[in-house]
Amino acid sequence: MSSKPTYLGLLNAVAVAELGGESLFKAWAAVTPNEDVRALLQTVALREAEHARSFAKRIDELGYSVLSKDDPGLPERIATAKSKKLTDREKFEKFGLTYRRKGADIFTRFFNDMTIDIQTGELLGRYISEERDTGRRLKACYDGLLAAENGSSGKSTKAPNAPAPPKKLTSSRSVKRTSSAASRAKSA
Ligand SMILES: [Fe+2]
């Protein structure tokens, strides 16, 4: 008789949190006036969506179901994401997506459980790498918005409320990312 995996709670927590993340980034992407920010938020929303599903799928393969957990703060965060009064820069700050903290992140502890099976380990490894990449991209986007607001981008003709494109997302790569995000959305 196989016993319940000790890391089931971790998988469940990720599945639930990523579902909330999908709603939040989708809602934000729908209202941002900045095309580059929207492209990034759509990418992040797709990642969150896929994480939620793949963790739910793994939980199912292990013989269990996702136990949904109430997140009382989520409706308010989604309302913040949908706000047309707040700028994107302000939303980054409200969501704590400024990435100022140095050192180990929460994912470092994920592999402390020495019993994690290979398939779950693969999923966790990809998930962690993707989350860290998302963090780097969001940080670059926030830094770009901040720099633009502080006038270091030279785009002083913009209205104060219209967030300028983040510096690191204005290359041709951001165009590629936009179209690949769009094609992923179509094929989804
Ligand atoms: Fe996430």
Task: Summarize the model shown.
The protein is an all-alpha fold and 188 residues long. It has helices at residues 8-31, 35-61, 74-82, 88-94, 118-149, 172-187.
Give the tags:
Ferritin, 61% helix, 188 residues, 6 helices, binds fe (ii) ion, disordered C terminus, mainly alpha
Number of helices: 6
Q: What is the H/E string?
A: HHHHHH
Largest sheet: none
Determine the structural class based on helices, strands and strand pairing: mainly alpha
Query: What is the CATH topology classification name?
Result: Ferritin
What is the number of domains? 1
Estimate the mean pLDDT confidence. Answer: 86
Distance between the termini: 38 Å
Q: Which residues form runs of ≥5 with pLDDT under 50?
A: 154-175, 177-188
Give Rg in angstroms: 18 Å
What's the count of strands? 0
- Reading off the top of the CATH hierarchy, the class is best stated as Mainly Alpha
Describe this structure in words.
The chain is an all-alpha fold and 188 residues long. The chain has a single domain (8-187), classed as Ferritin (Up-down Bundle), CATH 1.20.1260. The protein is built from six helices and no strands. The protein has helices at residues 8-31, 35-61, 74-82, 88-94, 118-149, 172-187. α1 runs antiparallel to α2 (35-61) and α1 (8-31) runs parallel beside α3. The longest helix has 32 residues, at 118-149. It is elongated. It starts with 7 loop residues before the first helix and ends with a helix.
